[in-house]
Design a protein that fits this description.
By secondary structure, this protein is an alpha+beta fold. The protein has six helices and 18 strands. Strand 7 and strand 8 form a beta hairpin. About 45% of the residues are buried.
Length: about 350
């Protein structure tokens, strides 16, 4: 697969990891209850218009921002950079490449840059945040799933190759990818798992109507916390919002469960993925391989591939690659015909 294993070791500025996500929600209290009581996040600050939350392990002020709105969109996804200078280097880099950039003041953050990527995803690059106490040893404060830290985003993209061409020059490396064999006999890129921090992914792009935010993901300390999350969901009335899992992915090898929040935003709670630090070839998966998405259990429902959160003021486009993903509905139809 062309360019999959390209590696840029000296990017124009240093992105270190996925940092934070900003969601627009209709009911702040309802969303706050979901993310604190079920997911287990901690409130760092709040007012009448926004709630700032972080995981128990996190030192930065926030990894999730809920903003009161009439929309149910994603405002931005954040990436952390190493130093203040990286913000200004990023501004210069994107300006030379023809991208519009804006330096902005964001509460509780240091130097911050707004820019949209090659398919229109609104990014927020942040050099620092106000520190808050790590709470991962404050076990009496553990609630719900006991979420530890934000790990990655998965987005749907109308042109996966275009996103790869944008992020690889910034130092992102492909850990795993999915391809689809079409009638022309060629392998067509369907999805890429891109990382900066040394595990399988900081940001993932898969073929679909986009750009849209498919999900964002938090790590859990233990598999038992995943089951506890399901039990807590049942006790709090969130059982209908358990969308998929528990299960184990083929890509990344993670144990997972997915929920939809009160506005339909999708969150993954997971653990047990692996390190991807050394230079090594990316692992490729055929889209038709059932172990690609699930090592065991049923395939995902059709809505898994068709429903996602739109970005504010960004109009999604139909995907360039026309391919039907392996849904639960297709699996059951085949089983009934057999």
């Amino acid at each position: 697969m062309q360019h999959i294993n390209d590696v840029i070791l000296d990017p124009p500025f240093t992105i270190t990891r996925a940092s934070h996500v900003v969601l627009n929600v209709r009911d702040l209290e309802a969303s706050k209850h979901f993310y604190t009581e079920l997911v287990g996040l901690v409130v760092s600050d709040e007012d009448d218009s926004a709630v700032y939350l972080r995981g128990l392990e996190e030192r930065g002020h926030h990894s999730l921002v809920l903003r009161k709105s009439t929309e149910t969109t994603c405002a931005r996804i954040g990436m952390r950079v190493l130093r203040d200078d990286d913000i200004f280097n990023a501004q210069d880099y994107f300006a030379r490449a023809g991208y519009a950039t804006t330096l902005v003041d964001v509460p509780f953050q240091g130097p911050t840059l707004h820019v949209s990527d090659s398919i229109g995803v609104p990014l927020e690059l942040c050099a620092s945040m106000e520190p808050r106490e790590r709470l991962f040893k404050e076990y009496h404060r553990y609630r719900g799933a006991c979420a530890q830290r934000l790990d990655h985003y998965q987005l749907q993209a109308s042109d996966v190759r275009k996103t790869l061409a944008f992020y690889q020059p910034l130092g992102f490396r492909v850990s795993e990818y999915t391809y689809s064999k079409l009638d022309d006999g060629q392998d067509h890129l369907w999805g890429v798992w891109l990382q900066r921090k040394g595990n399988p992914h900081d940001i993932v792009f898969t073929n679909g109507v986009g750009p849209r935010l498919h999900h964002f993901a938090y790590t859990l300390p233990d598999t038992n916390d995943m089951i506890r999350a399901c039990d807590v969901a049942g006790a709090l009335g969130y059982a209908p919002q358990l969308e998929r899992g528990p299960g184990r992915h083929g890509i990344s090898g993670a144990l997972f469960v997915y929920f939809r929040d009160p506005d339909g935003h999708r969150i993954e709670l997971f653990n047990t993925h692996y390190q991807h630090i050394d230079l090594e070839p990316a692992l490729g998966w055929d889209l038709s391989d059932p172990k690609r998405a699930d090592q065991w259990g049923m395939p995902a429902q059709n809505k898994w591939f068709n429903e996602a959160t739109e970005f504010a003021s960004v109009t999604p486009s139909s995907p360039n690659l026309k391919v039907d993903p392996p849904t639960l509905e297709r699996f059951l139809a085949i089983a009934n015909d057999a």
